[in-house]
Task: inverse folding
């Protein structure tokens, strides 16, 4: 796993350098040390974690669709004369393991319209939502399942007894 992570990150950082340098071959005398430093720093700050590329590819349309639907909902609420909102905080009990999967979930939730991750606790995620009357918990659960699939995690059954 660490070998594939090093290779993929090395390729990514090399591509970034190539773009920044405008493809100039002479820039590599400084680019190689810069790429190696970036690679070392990335491994220290973000240790390798297993994830499934196929699931990442499946996640992209899922995320785009949710973003479009959420954006339309937020626009409708903003333009509606009655402004049908009931903002509030909800607490979602996390089933993902600590670390990168939880961070990806919190960041994904914040990128979806109408939601904002407010606090990532030890075993919960507090989310600000535009309408607490909607079933926000099941929507967050759907996103959590998608993130779990990316990292190859099997989620335990919800503590509510599902």
Result:
């Amino acid at each position: 796993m660490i070998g594939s992570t090093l290779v993929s990150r090395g390729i990514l950082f090399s591509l970034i350098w190539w773009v920044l340098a405008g493809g100039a071959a002479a820039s590599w005398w400084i680019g190689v040390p810069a790429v190696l430093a970036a690679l070392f720093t990335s491994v220290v700050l973000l240790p390798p974690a297993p994830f499934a590329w196929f699931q990442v590819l499946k996640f992209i349309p899922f995320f785009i669709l949710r973003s479009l639907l959420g954006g339309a909902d937020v626009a409708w609420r903003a333009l509606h004369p009655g402004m049908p909102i009931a903002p509030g905080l909800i607490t979602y009990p996390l089933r993902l393991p600590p670390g990168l999967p939880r961070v990806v979930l919190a960041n994904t939730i914040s990128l979806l319209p109408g939601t904002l991750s407010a606090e990532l606790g030890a075993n919960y995620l507090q989310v600000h939502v535009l309408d607490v009357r909607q079933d926000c918990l099941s929507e967050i659960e759907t996103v959590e399942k998608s993130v779990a699939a990316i990292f190859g995690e099997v989620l335990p059954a919800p503590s509510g007894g599902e």
